[in-house]
From TrEMBL:
The chain crosses the membrane at residues 65-85. Keywords: Membrane, Transmembrane, Transmembrane helix. It comes from Gordoniibacillus kamchatkensis. It comes from the Bacteria. Coiled coil: none annotated. It is a multi-pass membrane protein. The lineage of its organism: Bacteria, Bacillati, Bacillota, Bacilli, Bacillales. It is found in: Membrane. This is DUF92 domain-containing protein. Belongs to the TMEM19 family.
Amino acid sequence: MPRSRSWRSSRSPPGSPEALADSWLGAAWQAMRRCTVCGREVERAAHCSRPTVHARGVPWLGNDAVNLLSSAAGGIVAVLLALAFGL
Ligand SMILES: [Zn+2]
């Protein structure tokens, strides 16, 4: 597990809109790269002292972009819930 992902998960409670958006965005859209030496999927541009190749996801959608989008999504859901329940 990359350190940045566990940091994100621990920040938002499980089941919160942020955590749900984060896991969905991360799983479906976040750019992942593959090491050509050991074959592991990584988030870094290099692994095993070799450049990695793009494996899946949106190439420019890195960890920071996923963080930003999931926070925004959480905020939007919170506002919609507040409006729906008249809070
Ligand atoms: Zn490697």
